[in-house]
Amino acid sequence: MSVDTLTYLALGDSYTIGEAVPLSGSFPHQLRNRLQAKGLHIKAPLIIAKTGWTTSELEEGIKTAAVQQKFDIVTLLIGVNNQYRGESKTAYRNEFKKLLETAIKFAGGQKAHVFVISIPDWGATPYGRESGRDIASIATEIDAFNAINKEETQMQGISYTDITPASRLAKSDESLLAEDGLHPSEKMYFDWAVQLEPKILKGLK
Question: Is the C or the N end of the chain the one with fewer CB within 10 Å?
Answer without folding.
Answer: C
